[in-house]
Amino acid sequence: MDTAVLGEVARLFAIYGEFESASPFGNGHINDTFQSCWNQAGTRVRYTHQRINHRVFVHPDEVMENISRVTGHIAGKLLAAGEKDRSRRTLTVVPALDGKPFARDAEGGWWRTYLFIEGAHTMAVTASPKEARFLGESIGRFQKQLADLPPPRLHDAIPDFHNMEKRYARFYDALSKDPCGRAKDAAAEIAFMKENEERGAILTRSLREGKIPERITHNDTKMNNILIDDKDSHALSVIDLDTVMPGTSLFDLGDLIRTVTTRAEEDEQDLSKVEFDLAFFESLLEGYLSEALEFLGDEEKKLIAESGRNITQIMGLRFLTDYLEGDHYYHTSRPGHNLDRCRNQIALIKSMDAKWDEAERIVRRLVKG
Ligand code: ADP
Ligand code: GN1
Ligand code: MG
User: Fold this and answer.
1) Ligand 1 mean position, distance from CA 123 (Å)
2) Measured between alpha carbons, how far is 364 from 367 in angstroms, rounded to an integer?
3) Which residues fall within 8 angstroms of residue 292, CB to CB, at 6 or more apart?
4) Residues enclosing ligand 1, CB less than 6 A?
5) What pLDDT sits at residue 297?
6) Most informative mutation of 33, 220, 311, 337 for ligand 2 (most atoms within 8 A of CB)
7) Which residues have CB under 6 Å of ligand 2?
8) What percent of the chain has pLDDT over 90?
């Protein structure tokens, strides 16, 4: 998209001053993200604009209603706590000129705008246990901040998002149709997913049977959805709020475990680098539990280690399904990208399994406090 078109989109929002420039930003798999620069009476100010992926989020107005409520609630908490730097500690929705939290472009695209959070970055991999701890803390805090969000229930932004049974049904459908003739190239991965189907259903079943409670959760807590303060590596704010909806605390913890406890990126092809790191796991849990221990129930605590394996499995299964279907869902940048991601997730699960007893021991020790 060229600057002139982005300028037109940016001007749909209630932003003061003169538009100067705009360019693509970030590396998400789903939405298209841009930044714009404005001259506001002599000060250069940036904004974040996102074109919401309308194929993934079929009700963008409901997504934006969820996000407005959630960010408003967190902003209220930060204000009540006398926190400094509040507009860097949560996303701030900038309304469109008509007051709505989104705007439509000439092609029918759905756009939203946030204040650009300055002096922050996202991390692709964890460098030290200290960072893992900060990341864990931020998600525990996020869940705690939303525990008392007033009714009504949030919209289900993507129904059955982490429902393993439904994900398996779609996988089997893709496998039987094999529209691109790719199943033959993924025989080992397909076999792994079939062998592990039963174990993978545990979070879905526990939630459905009421063994673990429904809470408001983020549901996409991979580490690059957390902004880190440039000056002290503290986790500043949790972003990418499209999927905030009712779920289990374990979806969020699981996605953190999946992304924070290995030094390898999600699409690393050298699988010898994909290793579950127990020191990162322990620090991540210490951080998360420093906020969450007070509200977690016994059944949730029992499933902590399992949550990491579970969310890693669901992501591996989704990458594999997208590969079989022809790469329609995730942004890809090379042939076989989704298959590489799937292989990476399976390698991580195998590494978790190899260290399972120690991981469970760490959990038991930490939940005792
Ligand atoms: P996606 O759903 O495609 O993953 P994200 O909402 O995660 O999109 O945004 C993509 C990237 O854009 C983030 O990883 C982050 O680097 C950057 N980003 C998003 N919102 C902001 C913001 N308000 N301030 C600064 N950077 C942002
Ligand atoms: C997507 O939007 P992004 O890139 O943060 C996906 C997540 C996956 C993740 C894998 C709405 O997250 O579920 O875990 O890719 N988001 C959606 O990297 O499907
Ligand atoms: Mg993201």
Assistant:
1) 12
2) 5
3) 140, 143, 144, 249, 253
4) 25-26, 28-31, 33, 48, 91, 114, 116-117, 122, 224-225, 239-240
5) 97
6) 220
7) 28-30, 56, 220, 222, 225, 240, 242-243, 266, 315
8) 97
Q: Report angle CA 243, 249, 253 to the nearest 5 degrees.
A: 90
Give ion ligand 3 contacts, CB < 5 A: 28, 225, 240
Against a cut of 0.90, is the pTM above it?
yes
User: What per-residue confidence (pLDDT) applies to 50?
Assistant: 97
Q: What is the pLDDT of residues 34-75, one digit of tens each?
A: 999 999 999 999 999 999 999 999 999 999 999 999 999 999
Report the chain's C-alpha Rg in angstroms.
21
Of 3, 8, 53, whose CA–CA distance to 23 is shortest?
Answer: 3
Question: Residue 27: which of 272, 326, 266 has the closest Cα?
Answer: 266
Distance from residue 220's CA to the centre of ligand 2 (Å): 6
Of 66, 72, 146, 152, the closest CA to residue 102 belongs to 66
Does position 1 have pLDDT exceeding 80, yes or no?
A: no
CB 112 within 8 A of CB 236: no
Q: Which two tokens stand for residue 324?
A: 């079989």
Q: Residue 120: its pLDDT value, please?
A: 97
Q: What's the distance, CA 10 to chain centroid?
A: 25
E strand spans, the chain: 18-24, 32-40, 43-51, 93-94, 103-104, 110-115, 120-121, 215-217, 226-229, 235-238, 245-247
CA of 116 to the centre of ligand 1 (A): 9
pLDDT grade, residue 5 (50/70/90)?
A: confident
